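Structure in, sequence out. Go:
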C-alpha cells in the first residue's frame, strides 16, 4: 500500500513539474519579499523558485545594488521590472534569462504589462489594449500580457482597454521611456455575451469564418465603439495604416492595394481585388473583382455592374452560338 501511495505522489510531482516547465520563464509566478538586500539575493531566490539561470555582464548589471521588493503571485517579468534599472533589458532563451543593456528609445517607446481582473486578481487573456490616435494595438496573450509601441513625441498617451463582458477602462501615461504598466479592469454590471446578429448571405458567412481566425478579430468582439478615420491605406486586411483595428473603423477615404477589411466607408473606397465592409457603405466603391457589404449600401459600385455586364455578355454569346 505504501508503495502505491509513494508512486502516486511521484506521478503527481512529475505532472506538476512538467506543467511548470511548459510555462515560459518570464511568465512563471513567484512570491518574493526582500528588504535592503543585494540584487544577487533576489536573483538567487527567483532562480530557486523557477529554475531559471541568470546570465549578465557585471559591467551592465550591478549585482551588489541594494533592493527591496514585495511581490505575491507576480510573474518573473513583473519582479524584474521592479528590481532592475531602466537601462537593463531582459529576455528568455532556453533556461536562461539574459540581461543586457537596453537600447535608447527612438521615435517610439514600448509599453507592456498585464491586465488583471480587479475583483478576482486573475490575469485576463484576450483583452484589447490600443491607442486610438496612433492606431497601435495589442491583445493580451494567455497569460494576460500585452506589449505595444506608442509614439514618443506625444506628451501623453491614452490607452483604451476593452474586453467583452468587462467595463471599459482607460489609462493615461507619459511616453518618455519603455515601461511596464499594470492595468485593472472590472466585470461589467450587466454583461451580455457577444452576439453578432447581422443577417448575411452564404458568401458573407464564409468571409466571417475566414476572418475569425485572424489575430485582429478579437477586437471586433471587445471594442463596441466605432473609430472614425479620414484616410486609410492597406495592402491586405489588417496590413495597413489601421493595423489590427481596421475592422472597427469607418473610413472617409479607403485605398486598398489588393483588398481591405473595415467596419464601413462613408465616402470613397477602391480596392485592387476586393473591399469588405462589415456594416454600411455610402459613396463610391470600386473593387477589381468583388465588394462585400454587411449593411445598407447606398453607393455607386462599378464592380457589381461589371460582373453583371460580363454575365449578360456571356449569356448573349451562348444565345448567339446556339442559333
Amino acid at each position: 500500500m505504501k508503495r502505491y501511495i509513494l508512486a502516486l505522489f511521484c506521478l503527481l510531482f512529475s505532472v506538476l513539474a512538467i506543467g511548470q516547465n511548459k510555462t515560459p520563464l518570464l511568465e512563471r509566478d513567484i512570491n518574493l519579499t526582500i528588504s535592503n538586500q543585494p540584487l544577487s539575493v533576489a536573483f538567487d531566490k527567483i532562480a530557486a523558485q523557477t529554475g531559471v539561470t541568470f546570465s549578465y555582464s557585471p559591467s551592465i548589471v550591478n549585482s551588489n545594488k541594494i533592493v527591496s521588493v514585495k511581490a505575491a503571485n507576480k510573474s518573473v517579468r513583473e519582479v524584474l521590472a521592479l528590481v532592475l534599472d531602466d537601462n537593463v533589458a531582459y529576455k528568455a532563451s532556453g533556461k536562461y534569462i539574459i540581461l543586457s543593456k537596453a537600447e535608447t528609445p527612438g521615435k517610439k517607446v514600448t509599453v507592456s504589462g498585464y491586465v488583471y481582473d480587479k475583483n478576482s486578481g486573475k490575469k485576463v487573456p484576450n483583452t484589447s489594449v490600443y491607442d486610438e490616435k496612433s492606431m497601435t494595438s495589442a491583445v493580451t496573450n494567455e497569460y494576460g500580457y500585452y506589449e505595444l509601441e506608442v509614439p514618443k513625441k506625444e506628451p501623453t498617451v491614452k490607452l483604451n482597454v476593452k474586453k467583452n463582458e468587462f467595463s471599459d477602462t482607460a489609462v493615461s501615461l507619459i511616453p518618455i521611456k519603455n515601461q511596464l504598466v499594470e492595468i485593472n479592469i472590472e466585470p461589467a454590471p450587466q454583461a451580455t455575451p457577444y452576439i453578432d446578429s447581422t443577417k448575411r448571405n452564404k458568401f458573407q458567412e464564409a468571409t466571417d469564418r475566414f476572418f475569425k481566425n485572424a489575430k485582429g478579430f478579437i477586437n471586433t468582439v471587445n471594442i463596441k465603439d466605432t473609430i472614425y478615420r479620414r484616410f486609410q491605406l492597406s495592402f491586405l486586411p489588417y496590413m495597413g495604416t489601421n493595423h489590427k483595428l481596421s475592422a472597427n473603423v469607418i473610413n472617409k477615404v479607403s485605398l486598398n492595394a489588393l483588398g481591405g477589411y473595415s467596419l464601413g466607408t462613408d465616402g470613397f473606397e477602391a480596392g485592387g481585388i476586393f473591399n469588405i465592409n462589415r456594416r454600411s457603405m455610402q459613396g463610391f466603391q470600386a473593387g477589381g473583382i468583388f465588394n462585400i457589404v454587411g449593411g445598407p449600401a447606398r453607393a455607386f459600385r462599378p464592380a457589381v455592374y461589371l460582373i453583371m455586364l460580363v454575365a449578360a455578355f456571356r449569356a448573349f454569346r451562348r444565345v448567339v452560338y446556339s442559333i
